[in-house]
UniProtKB/TrEMBL annotation:
One of its GO terms (molecular function) is oxidoreductase activity. It comes from Paracoccus amoyensis. Keywords: Flavoprotein, FMN, Oxidoreductase. InterPro entries: Nitroreductase, Nitroreductase-like, Nitroreductase/BluB. Residues 31-197 form the Nitroreductase domain. It comes from the Bacteria. The keyword Nucleus does not apply. This is Nitroreductase family protein.
Length: 222
């Protein structure tokens, strides 16, 4: 495919005062996003999940290669298998495999080896990163894969929040079992499981998670 420039299809430019108001409103809305571990079993329409993944699919990527695949799972038996495999890895981690420093860092977050959210949440979205492409049986290199998939995950999490739902960024390690379970090829690496649904009526968040670094610690202006 050769380079063909197109006129900018969409313009969303705002007047300066509108720009500031819009971004501040978005900032305030995103401050209401929380990583939740206690989910309601209430169902979520598959169309909502599809729309969220469609948002993720618009993410920018290196050379526009879009090196990602999303597997959405509502099947109870499949979710149970994922939970069983994930908890096996987590038990080894919390038994000492993670190291004292890492475990101490996680203590204020209140995590542990039990992952009921993997079966309670009505949906799991498993994110795969395509380490290289395959076309007609031929392998070709993908560029900036972690960066591209990271951007897509951020947009997916934002879309889930925009849909009035909650999620949790779950990264069991290793996750190779997900390739076989989700019938994904070897060129794809599972990087994240996102349980998606409504929060339980008794949902909580760790107090430590509400402590965000102030702007002057995360931004420098020249």
């Amino acid at each position: 495919m050769s380079y063909v420039p197109l006129p900018l299809p969409d313009r969303v430019q705002l007047a300066p005062e509108e720009s500031l108001a819009h971004v501040r409103a978005y900032r305030d809305y995103m401050r209401k996003r929380h990583s939740v571990r206690e989910f309601s079993a209430d169902p979520v329409d598959a169309a909502v999940i599809r729309a969220c993944v469609e948002v993720a699919g618009t993410a920018p990527s290196g050379a526009n290669q879009q090196p990602w695949h999303f597997v959405a799972i509502s099947d109870a038996a499949m979710k149970a298998r994922i939970r069983e495999a994930a908890e096996e890895e987590e038990r080894a981690f919390y038994a000492g495999g993670g190291g004292d420093e890492w475990l101490a860092t996680l203590e204020p977050v209140g995590t542990g080896p039990d992952k009921p959210h993997l079966t309670t949440a009505p949906w799991l979205i498993v994110v795969f990163a395509q380490r290289y492409g395959l076309e007609d049986g031929r392998r070709h290199k993908h560029y900036y894969v972690p960066e591209s998939v990271g951007i897509a995950c951020g947009m997916l999490i934002s879309a889930i929040h925009h849909a009035g739902l909650v999620t949790l960024e779950h990264t069991p390690n290793p996750m190779k079992f997900l390739n076989e379970l989700c019938n994904r090829p070897d060129n794809e690496k599972p990087v994240m499981i996102l349980p998606v649904g409504l929060p339980a009526a008794t949902a909580t968040v760790p107090a430590a998670a509400k402590r965000k670094k102030p702007l002057d610690q995360i931004m420098t202006i020249f």
